[in-house]
C-alpha cells in the first residue's frame, strides 16, 4: 500500500542494518534516516550546535551522537541530552508499510 502526500518513501525496510544511517533529501530538506535497534527515525541532518553533519556521528540507545563536540540527541524527541548543544534538532513522523519507510517532511 502506498501512502498519499505528504508522505514520501525514502528507503526499503531492509536497506539499513541496526545502527546504520542514510542521508536523504526531501525537497530542500537534508534529513537523516536512522535505524536504532530496529526502529526507524528521521531527523535533521545537521547538528543544532554548529553546522556539522550528524551523519558523521553514531547511533546509540535511540540517540544520535554528534562527532564534532560530542552532543547526543534523543531520536524520538530531537532534544539534546548531552551538552554543548542546547537546541533540539527536528524530528519527522515515520511509518513503515509495504516494505518501505515513509517520512512526512512537513
Ligand atoms: S557541532 Fe554538534 S556538538 Fe558541536
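-> sequence recovered:
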Amino acid at each position: 500500500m502506498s501512502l498519499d502526500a505528504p508522505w514520501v518513501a525514502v528507503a526499503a525496510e531492509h536497506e539499513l542494518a541496526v545502527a546504520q544511517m542514510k542521508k536523504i533529501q526531501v525537497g530542500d530538506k537534508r534529513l537523516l534516516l536512522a535505524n536504532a535497534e530496529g526502529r526507524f527515525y528521521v531527523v535533521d541532518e545537521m547538528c543544532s550546535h554548529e553546522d556539522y553533519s550528524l551523519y558523521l556521528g553514531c547511533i546509540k540507545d535511540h540517540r544520535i551522537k554528534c562527532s564534532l563536540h560530542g552532543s547526543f540527541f534523543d531520536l524520538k524527541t530531537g532534544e539534546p541530552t548531552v551538552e554543548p548543544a542546547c537546541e533540539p534538532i527536528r524530528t519527522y513522523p515515520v511509518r513503515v508499510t509495504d516494505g518501505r519507510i515513509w517520512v512526512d517532511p512537513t
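DSSP finds no helices and eleven strands in the chain.
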